[in-house]
Amino acid sequence: MINGRTLVAAWLAGLTLVASAAAAQTLRIGLAEDPDTLDPTLSRTFVSGVVRTALCDKLFDIGLELEIVPQLATKWEWTDDKKGLVINLRPNVKFHDGEPFDAAAVKYSIERHLTMPGSTRKRDISAISSVEIIETIRPSSCCRRRLRRCSRN
To answer: How confident is the model at residue 139 (pLDDT cuts 50, 70, 90)?
Structure first.
């Protein structure tokens, strides 16, 4: 039978473990295999996708109810002809190296995905014909994606 002292001792030991874990500066994660690359444009494996998700934010994600969930985008709207998507970006975001996240970074990333030989993202975003920076007011910025064809929805 567990007495009160044993229960309190176990609780204090658990609290100590939680406190020491909260002070830790290193997180170790075990994976069944190594990612093929850390380059989001060239990665091909499931494990790379897991690592990429932990390292990289997206403009949008898909929620549990299959709704569009903003991440680095704060709002978006289609142009009147339904061939352009104007995206407002989250302000004051920085990359790991301290560089600002802005419309120029979005444009560069999308163009790199579309043009880099071996890109595994090209097919995912092939409907995009161009990216245009339409506003660069700091700390926020805005870009427009032009599509090759109108969406049926």
So the answer is: very low
Of 153, 131, 12, 143, the residue nearest 74 (C-alpha): 143
**pTM of the full structure:** 0.69
Nearest residue to 84 via CA among 7, 143, 9: 143
Query: For 69-123, what is each residue's pLDDT tens digit?
Result: 999 999 888 988 888 888 989 989 999 899 999 989 999 999 999 999 999 999 9
Three-class SS string for the chain?
A: CCCHHHHHHHHHHHHHHHHHHHHCCCCCCCCCCCCCCCCCCCCCCHHHHHHHHHHCCCCEEECCCCCEEECCEEEEEECCCCCEEEEEECCCCECCCCCECCHHHHHHHHHHHHHCCCCCCCCCCCCEEEEEEEECCCCCCEEEEEECCCCCC
Reference 125, options 109, 110, 142; nearest CA is: 110
Tell me how far apart the alpha carbons of residues 136 and 106 are, in angstroms, rounded to a whole number. Answer: 12
Sign of the torsion formed by the C-alpha atoms of 34, 37, 41 and 42: negative
Given a cut of 60, is residue 11 above it in pLDDT?
no
